[in-house]
Amino acid sequence: MISKTLLIASLLTSTLYFAQEKKTEKAKFNQELATSLGADQYGMKAYTIVMLTTGSAKIEDKTQMSTLMKGHMTNIGKLANEGKIIVAGPFLEKNKENYRGMFIFNTKSKEEAEQWVKTDPAVQAGVFSYEIFPWYGSAALPLYLKHHEEISKENP
Fold first, then answer.
1. What residues make up the domain containing 86?
2. Are 54 and 103 in the same domain?
3. Among 46, 27, 55, which residue's Cα sits nearest to residue 105?
4. Does residue 67 belong to any structural domain of this protein?
5. Is residue 128 located within the same domain as residue 82?
6. Is 156 among the domain residues?
7. Residue 99: HSE in the Cβ half-sphere, 13 Å Cα cutoff
8. Is 96 found in the same domain as 57?
9. pLDDT of 50-85, one tens digit each?
10. Rounded-to-10 torsion of CA 41, 43, 47, 49
11. Residues 19 and 41 in one domain
């Protein structure tokens, strides 16, 4: 009985050890992928974050606001298809800074990011204003977009 228990415990310990070893195995470095993504030696690169804030325009007309928001979403899709926006989304809770949403643009240039955010109809109409920040993150970030389409049934 004791030897059977020891054998089971030993097998469990070995299985857990090898499972953990496999988990912590470092992925093989892929120079071609790193170069194509613009990664530095740490696998990182510079981006620009745009924080959308509540703008000064107060639009009461629901049809006009609906049209602006539809244009906002269409513009996000266009910029994403062009590889300019790699992350976009609204904040789910109100906050003291009046941040409404954010974009992560695939550029280190604040000027270029500003040009791109100004193509948004809701920004043009004053529904949203914005703040721009340089940011340093994983160069692999743009890769999530290709998988997002595989997991979403509908577009907002």
1. 34-151
2. yes
3. 46
4. yes
5. yes
6. no
7. 17
8. yes
9. 999 999 999 999 999 999 999 999 999 999 999 999
10. -140
11. no
Residue 126 DSSP code: T
pTM: 0.77
Total tally of structural domains belonging to the chain: 2
* H or E, element range at 128: strand 128-138
Q: Where are the alpha helices (DSSP H) in the chain?
A: 2-24, 31-37, 62-81, 110-117, 121-124, 144-151
| C-alpha torsion sign, points 80, 76, 109, 52 | negative
What are the helix (H) ranges across 49-127? Answer: 62-81, 110-117, 121-124
| Structural tokens at position 115 | 């040009």
Evaluate whether 117 touches 123 at the Cβ level (below 8 Å). yes
| Alpha-carbon gap, residue 117 to 52, rounded angstroms | 9
Q: Are residues 50 and 72 in the same domain?
A: yes
Average pLDDT, the chain: 86
Query: Can you give the length of the chain in residues?
Result: 156
**For residue 54, which phi and psi values (nearest 5 degrees)?**
-65, 125
Both structure tokens of 8: 């089971």
What CATH number did the domain enclosing 104 receive? 3.30.70.1060
The two tokens of residue 4 are: 């059977």
